[in-house]
Amino acid sequence: MSHTPQWAWFCLAAVVAAAVLSLLRAMAVQVRNGQALHDLRRRVFEVRIGYLKQIIATYQPLEGEVEIIEDTAPASSPDEPRMAA
User: Fold this and answer.
1) Which of 10, 11, 47, 58 has its CA 20 to 30 A from that of 40?
2) How far, in Å, are 39, 55, 70 from residue 49 at the CA level?
């Protein structure tokens, strides 16, 4: 059985440590991106709801008092000529 030098063990440990740190960093980036995506989707949902509420409010009838004004002008007599637009 051959004896492995101590520097080789240090290099192997450094490579393993770098691999573990790289894996943990990649997982942290995945979690951060997932959180950012969730926040973005929630914000888009809120904006869509706001636009829908705005559209609904635009087409809702007025809830205040509405005054109806009757037309009291006399109807045009049949003797008057009609003009085309």
Assistant:
1) 58
2) 15, 10, 40
54 alpha carbon, distance to own chain's centre = 16
Please tell me the pTM assigned to this model: 0.52
Alpha-carbon distance of 66 to 56, in angstroms, equals: 20
d(CA 51, CA 55): 6
Sorted by sequence, the CB contacts under 8 Å of residue 76 that are 6+ apart come out as 82
pLDDT in tens, 39-85: 999 999 999 999 999 998 888 876 666 677 777 766 666 566 666 65
CA-based torsion, 58, 60, 61, 65: positive or negative: negative
